[in-house]
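Write out this protein's structure.
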Amino acid sequence: MDFDAVLARRKMVRNFSDTPVPPNILEKVLVAALKAPSAGFTQGVDLLVLVHPDQLARYWEATTTPEWNAATRRAGMMRAPVIVLPLCNPAAYADRYGEPDKTGSGLDRIESWPVPYWWVDAAFATMNILLAAVDNGLAAGFLGMFRGEDEVLTSFGVPSGYRALGAVLLGQPAEPDPASASLGRGRRPPDEVIHRGSW
């Protein structure tokens, strides 16, 4: 698919069918994450991929409440047959910037980073997943993880020190797919966003 078409079709899907994602397509989407930029080529982002019904149920149980489940208009998200958790490891970045070729950067301690690039790199990898999903005929949505992060990471044996950026839902779309109410704000026009040479 043409890149402009991928960008035009990319959106956050909120209603999925339970149709499984073919393994070869899932693999292509996951490998796309590995092509994302990485500060110092640290490669401190890992992906936890959940596909079995018991894994998916454990994720939803940890990250939602019965009240949310009863009230949500987005129950279709819970049918997504794949959940990918982009995980970052801050210590990997401090370790990498303590290596000889990065000596003197002062970034060999997590608290020294003015911008926490482990989150940036995890976001880059996530965007690659979202775009690769569209390119491979899948629907995708991203959710923040505002509840249950520790429970999820412990439940799936993730080593200590890792953090979850959120969750990418992958699958086939179902109808109706409710648009976010936030879209009513409209997209800012390029001439309001792009500042050429000065503000």
